[in-house]
Amino acid sequence: MHYSTSPIDRLDHLRADVNAISTIWHQQTTKIIPFWRNRVLIEQKGQQTPTLHPLTRNNVPGDAKFQTFLGATGEIHWFSVELAPDAEPDLGLLLQGTETDPAVCSFAELRVIGPHLPRDDGALAIYARAIGNWQNRSSFCPNCGQAAELVNAGHVRQCSNQDCGTQIFPRTDPAVIMLVTDKHDNNRCLLGRSKGWPDGVYSTLAGFVEAGESLEAAVAREVHEETGITVDDVRYVTSQPWPFPQSIMLGFNSVANDTEIKLNESELDDARWFTRQELAEFGEWGETSDRFKLPRRDSIARYLIEYWLNKPKLGA
Ligand SMILES: [Zn+2]
Questions:
Q1: Distance 144 CA to ligand 1 centre (A)
Q2: How high is the mean pLDDT of the chain?
């Protein structure tokens, strides 16, 4: 699944070693992923697959911030940086002295370009975006309100108030997402759609885990809140980092005890049961037909649906 397997060794034991991090930063082979306003620099020639276009140290502007050590893929070390947000970066300057034509590079919204990147590039970019989002949202100590400085190569913030000294670590908000099947007819599953989605798109139900709540209880509560249906037999399937801005999606299967939908219109635009045969006729997110459509290819919702579709029916 997109973003869930990463090629990188995070080398977290090096983060606190200022000298080692500085040495790695200055290596000519080190690659630096630049972000600008949540957009990542990509290269795309014609109809070819887009790829990340990392910079070398010499091409990183002096006012870039959040120099973050990501780790290594083989012999290559990786950092990410955030470019100054106020003015659009000058691609000619960023690529000066390289063989890359600025005309084939652009800053692309990761949420849009992510599904089209090679899997390894996508996973690297998602990791960098996750830590960058946290850095942007954690400038002040939650304990005393003083400024908090980045340490450990970008992975920890340290409160600047010596009487406080709180360390702040990257935060990830857990969200559950679940495919619900019918206890009495395993040939159909429950999908819903939110207001504002493209016409015809249906997906698995989902919601945030609340404080003091188990994942299983969150699955059951969200399904019941949104559709009035009670579920049990909640089973974990897989997970996907989703740093838009700071979530991890935890994917489950669960089984409905009852099937009458009582739609919560404040949460969903619609919810219905679909059979495997009906799902086989669904189109793709983004197409303009009047068919029903599946969720995006890079989403865990899509994975959960396909995981279920490809399993044999009960008793088969
Ligand atoms: Zn503090």
A1: 4
A2: 95
